[in-house]
């Protein structure tokens, strides 16, 4: 798995996940529980992970939809 995206905004993560699922790219959000434990104040970012072989295609989907990867 390779990190595609890191964000403290749950709406960005949900949108990114929906876009990837629409393109049949498997993704997994990490650090969701940590984000919930901190009380939703946005200190800890969530990470969107994809398989290494899907990374380039997933990054293209993010760029095409205006989601910055921050790298």
Low-pLDDT runs of 5+ residues are none
Largest sheet: 3 strands, antiparallel
Oligomer: single chain
Structural class: alpha+beta
Total beta strand runs: 3
- Please state roughly what percent of the residues sit in beta strands, choosing from under 5%, 5-15%, 15-25%, 25-35%, 35-45% or over 45%: 15-25%
Tally of domains: 1
Q: Cα-atom Rg, whole angstroms?
A: 12 Å
Number of helices: 3
* Strands ordered across the widest β-sheet: 1-3-2
CATH architecture grouping: 2-Layer Sandwich
The CATH class, by name, is Alpha Beta
CATH fold-level assignment: Alpha-Beta Plaits
Instruction: Specify the overall morphology.
Output: globular
- Helical residue percent band: 40-55%
CA-CA gap between termini: 17 Å
Give the CATH H-level superfamily: UreE, C-terminal domain
Helices and strands, in N-to-C order? Answer: EHEHEH
């Amino acid at each position: 798995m390779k990190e595609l995206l890191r964000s403290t905004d749950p709406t960005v993560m949900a949108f990114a996940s929906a876009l990837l699922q629409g393109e049949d790219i498997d993704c997994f959000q990490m650090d969701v529980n940590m984000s919930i434990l901190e009380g939703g104040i946005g200190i800890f970012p969530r990470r969107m992970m994809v398989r290494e072989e899907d990374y380039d295609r997933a990054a293209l989907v993010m760029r095409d939809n205006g989601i910055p990867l921050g790298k």
